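User: Some background: our group keeps a shared notebook of sequences we're curious about, and every so often someone picks one and asks for a predicted structure to add to the entry. Today it's my turn. The entry only has the sequence so far, pasted here. Could you supply the structure so I can complete it?
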Amino acid sequence: MEDAQEAPDLDPALSSGAMNLNPRKLERVPWDHSGRHPGNRPFWTIILWAVDIAWAIIFRRSYIDPTPENEGGAVFASIHINGLVDPLAIVKSQRTPFVSIGRHDIMTMPVIGWMTRRMGSQPVIRRAELRGGVSDPEFAARINQRSMLTMANCIASGHPAVVMPEGKSHQDSKLHALRTGTLRFTLNAASIAHSRGLPMPVIQPVGLHYRCHHWFRTEAYIEFGEPINIPLVDDQLHNSKLVDGVWTEPPAEQVIPLRDELYEKLSAITPNSPDWETYRAWHLLGHLSAIKEGRKLSSYRQEVLAAREIRDSNPPEALLEAAIEAAEILHSANLDATVLDENAKVDRRKPLAKGLVGALLMAVTAPIVVISSGLQTLAGWYQGNNSDEGIDARTTHHMIGAVFSPLLFWPIASLVFTILFSLSNPLTEFAFAFMSILASNFIFLRGYDWWVDFRTSLRCAILARSDSGKRLEELITEIEPTLVVLK
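Assistant: Of course. Here's the predicted structure to add to the notebook entry:
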């Protein structure tokens, strides 16, 4: 397994948003060094409700493991390959107000900034922005220290925190180098908790897995590694300054080992593969191993864990090369190993009835869906495909539309319905209109899923009849006898 010193340490290309520093708004971002959550509690209640709806819109299926228990605060840390969907996934897994820290413009941009400020999110001006001349070092240090001290006090007081310790979203199948900021405010959180006689916080590694992270209606699996205990800084002056509200840097000799430990623990529950081609090959081998044992992997969670077993078994190079070629044949047809049947052949069954019912469900609900969700769907599709943030930001725009549908667009559509057709009880009619919109959108999505299943079956049939399909069968025939070496 690659160690922290070998991890890629490249600054991200600065997007137009990252280049747009708004000092006035950054100064006004809510913060609190007493340990109270800087967000708005009633707003969080609404956000958690909206997150549930948005999650069900974006993902077709998801699997969330139980979270290890801890009396104190917990710093939830994960790989960052899916834009703002990554922190959304962690919030969804816990269903409680979090404190978070992120790129400065997420707190100042229109719409999203309004929401993140009320959630209590804290801004940070990154090394990349400083090197790019976006901010002067003095202002950046003041904002960053204020934000990190807010994070430390909240964590010490028992609030959970969401952090992306790589400091950027990227497209690689393994961790990039971890920034030290997360470990610095985490160490200081432990110092504050100890000084106040509060339960000690922990770092909670989170494994975020997506079947294809930039696809709409993909699958997700969220898992949790063993919590990492945070060592105490044995310096009374350091600890007392923090309690008095003065940011003090923890010693590097404690920051670096903690960073390396987090990197190691986090790598174990990420894809941690040389590239996505290899990771897809591990998934294929996991499926073939299960089929050889007379069973099928029935969930994405099972697939991830099976692929990890393959990874950790260090398969022979010849076997891996054949698996990579086979997996790429599937991937080039927008398919994966889930299309293999119990005989390890591409499934040729065509669920025509399912496809027709799906098309019917979409047709019946389309008028309501287009009126209530058409605008934000079109905007999310356009922005996602034309963003300068990279492909990892694609689902961020899907998420924005999904979150603001129940918060803004659906209430407006319900209000218009109530005004136009009000009979005797406007409140009841508004509630009926809103629930009708909600139900119609989810019925439409179910129809969409069934239609996609039918389209997938057509691609399977085309592949099975092609030369590539014959080559896939040859490769699987070569692979199957060698699977025993992985046991």
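Suggested note for the entry: The mean pLDDT is 92. The beta strands are 59-64, 74-78, 99-103, 122-124, 161-163, 202-210, 218-224, 228-229.
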